[in-house]
Design a protein that fits this description.
There is one protein chain. This protein is an alpha+beta fold and 306 residues long. It contains ten helices and 15 strands. The protein has helices at 35-51, 68-73, 76-79, 94-105, 127-131, 176-196, 215-224, 252-256, 275-286, 295-300, and strands spanning 23-24, 31-32, 58-62, 65-67, 86-90, 114-121, 137-138, 142-151, 164-174, 202-206, 228-236, 239-248, 260-261, 264-265, 267-274. Helix 1 crosses helix 9. The longest helix has 21 residues, at 176-196. It binds adenosine-5'-triphosphate and zinc ion (ZN).
Length: 306
């Protein structure tokens, strides 16, 4: 793989002979996924859906872009400006474009007049959900199951750290007590599920990669309140990464989007799954051919040998 900070190639996943693994492209952190890898992604979707079968979830497929206003409003821009991908486009006239067009072939500054649009790239799958609850008074928990293609302008591109990756999330909006219990329940359930997939799981209190002078303070506060818990598993030889996280946002989104539940400001929790990372972990443990995985593993993915 390519390291965007050093400009050097590191790691193994770009070897086209390594069957079933993501193929590197000319840009760091962006991969092409072979059919056998996609089969594993499909099994993961199925396994997660089977786990959530007894929850009355609203299923939503999330597009890879989201309203810039929502992301500004939700606080993402202030806390993670370094990760956010913005969408720009040319808004000048065709005369103005003539001169700029000539710069394209030279690799010149043709984009000097691109302007930011009303969209940004989706940084996490759950963000659009909270906006759908704007100004609502919920009379009980509201649950969602979402999947989206997320983008993060990661500074490095070691194995498992992609810039474009898929995230499935189970999300609930409810009271504080309910959200905390729901998260604890899902943390336990997903840890057990990952173990049944033959993976070694560590649960750890974690923090988000905040930016700027407030970074240390935000991270310490997040850890002290145990708002983010990560499930970490080996994804390659000697590499352990978070493949899922269980998050409690308190009333942050309820305040922002003015929704309530049972008379109190709405609280939210989400259980997020990184599909590519779980797939890499499974390949690392059982090989790239999912057809030859142990029956117990396939059963936990909602399938199995006939
Ligand atoms: P990390 O600490 O590894 O940067 P994160 O804490 O920022 O991850 P979350 O925001 O909790 O991640 O995202 C939910 C899940 O999405 C993570 O547990 C992980 O499995 C996956 N994920 C996050 N960032 C990436 C990435 N750059 N490439 C691949 N998967 C990712
Ligand atoms: Zn989330």
């Amino acid at each position: 793989m390519f390291d965007s900070q050093t400009g050097g190639h590191v790691g193994v996943a770009d070897d086209p002979d390594v069957a079933g693994r993501p193929l590197a492209t000319g840009v760091p952190g962006v991969y092409l996924f072979p059919g056998s890898f996609e089969t594993i992604i499909g099994l993961l979707r199925q396994g997660i859906a089977a786990m959530a079968a007894d929850e009355p979830v609203r299923r939503l497929h999330i597009p890879p872009v989201i309203s810039r206003r929502v992301i500004e409003h939700a606080g993402y821009v202030k806390t993670f400006p370094h990760l956010l991908g913005t969408v720009h486009s040319y808004t000048g006239d065709s005369c103005g474009w003539q001169a700029l067009a000539e710069l394209v072939d030279e690799g010149g500054d043709w984009h000097a007049q691109q302007r930011i649009s009303d969209l940004v790239l989706l940084p996490a799958a759950c963000y659009p959900v909270y906006e759908t609850l704007t100004d609502q008074a919920l009379d009980g928990p509201r649950k969602f199951a979402v999947e989206g293609n997320c983008f993060r302008q990661e500074a490095t591109s070691e194995i498992g750290r992609l810039r474009s990756f898929r995230m499935v999330e189970l999300v609930t909006a409810a009271t504080a007590d309910y959200c905390l219990q729901w998260r604890a329940h899902w943390l336990e359930r997903v840890s057990g599920w990952l173990r049944s997939l033959g993976l070694h799981v560590d649960v750890e209190v974690a923090d988000d990669p905040f930016f700027g002078p407030g970074k240390k303070l935000f991270q310490a506060a997040q850890r002290m309140q145990e708002l983010k818990l990560e499930l970490r598993v080996p994804v390659a030889d000697g590499v352990v990464q978070a493949v899922a996280s269980a998050n409690y946002h308190k009333d942050h989104f309820g305040e922002t989007f003015r929704f309530s539940c049972d008379g109190e400001v709405g609280n939210t929790s989400c259980m997020a799954f990184g599909l590519e990372r779980i797939a890499l972990a499974l390949i690392n443990a059982h090989g790239p051919d999912s057809g030859s995985w142990p029956d117990g593993v396939l059963a936990a993915l909602g399938g199995g040998h006939d």
